[in-house]
Write a sequence for this structure.
């Protein structure tokens, strides 16, 4: 999971839960659990769910809705969104039922139990904001918007009986013919108004979100993987077709970067765009699954900014197929949705994933080396503002409680930097031949998605697969309390602090903007009585000029953000044309881009003797 603060991690689990013996409940007839979710009849913004139970031989059974799901690292109590729970026998008579806590219900005379029914409220209606801990994180939440959109994160609609998460789940979803259910699950019902999804266990159901909305999707194939991209935009401002080009480019680069580690044949990206009204999603970011990513952003974002954010979060979530979805501990594999024990290794699950999400971009030429260094330096600054002496393993296994919970966001900062340092150590010791991607491939071969490791044995296994220096790093800086000396590891690949030039915003002179806007006409105006930047002066712009288009792309005040993004991507010497209106006359100004630069402190490659190792690190 990744939260964007605009909020971002979340990961959902998909692995088999460990069956345990029960002295109070035994299944004699291993029939499936059949569920019906009715999206056609909405009452008070609630959805009716019917769960047909397996047959029990004991007097009492307990039905649970998850308290927490893997990857959100927060207690969300999905049971608080469940109303009017009823237990019914085969003759339609009610059975005695008692609420044990927020998420659990005890049913008496369980031998007679035929089905359970209840109403589900959605989480989007009651979100209190996008910050960590302020409510259910939107990509892990649910939406009920009759006739328009249903975000079905299955843990918010369907629960499980004690010790029965390993049964097959048959989920029927009744829906209007006008709505399409986008998911990586296979619909086994040919009807246009009823879908049937079958999963081998409860965890697999939780791992597959479904979004129902008016069809707006596009499919493409990346090296044998079928990708479905589905978009819900309330006003139609954004479409799957318009956003898909950058997403496809990103996912092709990711598949190429990963190589044989990934063998998925089907993947779905669900994008929900919030209209930002009082009763709508407000926690922005994404939640990963084994074969899907659910994403939530505000609809008002300009398309260019939305495309960039989509690439950043989807790249992070997609890499979760490596870890923890492909390599994980017992705590994740046998996850307890209502009494979880957390793993020590968030540095790997989230940190290495975040590192990959940045490394692959420079590896595949999507960003420059300087841009990559800048991202890592920003992470160093952010990590130092957190508790830099708190052992990462201790924070990880206690992340649900304070003071550790407050340090959670450091998994994306220091966690990624831990991955970077391990990568550099392995590159140095192997003369550039191997890196952390090779380590993750070896861990995948050793364990894989169905064989969890013991939490306290991972460091030893990593040391065995790599070098003693990696083991020393882990015990000193990950389970230990010593802050990481980042400059020491940068120096191994010839990188050090140095003064560098940074281009300023072409429309700014110092901190003064050279343009403004007319809210009535929506025109973008060059400011009068203001000293303009070198860029604006050299191209020939004057006060009161109306900027109509840049390089043949039209702009208004409503698309000002997109215009600013485009000009900040200009390079020195680029050809440029600006269409303006001066007085009542339209004309086009042409010329070459001339930028102004500030001297700033950054990181650069300064040691030619380490050039080969640096190239292996970034491009290998």
């Amino acid at each position: 999971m990744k939260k964007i603060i605009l909020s971002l991690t979340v990961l959902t689990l998909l692995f088999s839960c460990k069956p345990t013996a029960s002295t109070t409940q035994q299944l004699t007839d291993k029939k499936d659990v059949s569920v019906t979710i009715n999206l056609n009849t909405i009452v008070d913004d609630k959805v009716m769910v019917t769960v047909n139970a397996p047959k029990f031989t004991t007097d009492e059974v307990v039905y649970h809705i998850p308290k927490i799901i893997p990857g959100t690292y927060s207690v969300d109590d999905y049971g608080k969104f469940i109303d009017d729970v009823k237990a019914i026998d085969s003759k339609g008579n009610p059975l005695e039922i008692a609420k044990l806590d927020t998420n659990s219900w005890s049913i008496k005379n369980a031998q007679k139990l035929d089905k359970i029914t209840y109403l589900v409220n959605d989480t989007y209606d009651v979100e209190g904001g996008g910050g960590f801990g302020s409510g259910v994180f939107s990509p892990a939440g649910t939406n009920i918007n009759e006739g328009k959109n249903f975000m079905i994160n299955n843990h918010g609609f369907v629960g499980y009986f004690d010790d029965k998460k390993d049964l097959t789940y048959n989920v029927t979803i009744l829906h209007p013919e006008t709505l399409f259910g986008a998911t990586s699950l296979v619909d086994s019902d040919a009807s246009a108004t009823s879908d049937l999804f079958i999963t081998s266990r409860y965890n697999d159901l939780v791992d597959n979100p479904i979004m129902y909305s008016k069809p707006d999707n596009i499919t493409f194939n990346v090296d044998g993987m079928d990708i479905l991209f589905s978009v819900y935009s309330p006003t139609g401002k954004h479409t799957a077709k318009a956003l898909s080009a950058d997403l496809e480019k990103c996912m092709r680069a990711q598949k190429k970067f990963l190589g044989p580690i990934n063998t998925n044949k089907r993947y779905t990206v669900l994008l929900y765009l919030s209209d930002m009204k009082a009763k709508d999603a407000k926690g922005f970011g994404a939640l990963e699954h084994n074969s899907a990513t659910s994403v939530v952003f505000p609809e008002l974002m300009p398309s260019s900014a939305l495309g960039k954010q989509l690439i950043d979060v989807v790249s992070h979530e997609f890499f979760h197929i490596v870890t923890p979805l492909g390599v994980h501990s017992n705590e994740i594999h046998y996850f307890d949705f209502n009494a979880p024990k957390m793993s020590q290794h968030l540095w790997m699950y989230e940190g290495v994933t975040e590192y990959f999400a940045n490394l692959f971009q420079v590896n595949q030429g999507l960003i420059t080396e300087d841009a990559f260094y800048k991202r890592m330096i920003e992470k160093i600054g952010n990590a130092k503002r957190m508790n830099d002496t708190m052992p990462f393993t201790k924070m990880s296994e206690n992340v649900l409680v304070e003071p550790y919970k407050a340090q959670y966001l450091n998994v994306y900062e220091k966690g990624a930097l831990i991955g970077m340092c391990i990568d550099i150590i392995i590159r140095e010791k192997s003369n550039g031949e191997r890196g952390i991607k090779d380590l993750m491939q070896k861990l995948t071969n050793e364990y894989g998605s169905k064989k969890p490791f013991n939490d306290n044995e991972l460091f030893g296994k990593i040391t065995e697969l790599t070098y003693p220096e990696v083991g020393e790093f882990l015990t000193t800086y990950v389970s230990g309390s010593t802050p990481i000396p980042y400059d020491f590891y940068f120096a191994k690949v010839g990188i050090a602090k140095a003064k560098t030039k940074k281009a300023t915003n072409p429309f700014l002179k110092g901190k003064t903007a050279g343009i403004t806007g007319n809210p009535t006409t929506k025109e973008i105006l060059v400011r009068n009585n203001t000293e303009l930047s070198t860029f604006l002066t050299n191209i020939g712009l004057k006060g009161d000029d109306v900027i109509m288009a840049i390089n043949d792309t039209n702009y208004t005040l409503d698309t000002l953000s997109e215009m600013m993004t485009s000009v900040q991507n200009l390079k020195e010497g680029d050809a440029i044309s600006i269409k303006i209106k001066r007085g009542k006359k339209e004309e086009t100004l042409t010329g070459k881009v001339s930028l102004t630069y500030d001297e700033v402190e950054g990181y650069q490659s300064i040691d030619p003797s380490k050039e080969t190792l640096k190239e292996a690190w970034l491009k290998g």
About this structure: The chain is about 25% helix and 30% strand. Residues 240-258 form the longest helix (19 residues). The chain has a mean pLDDT of 90.
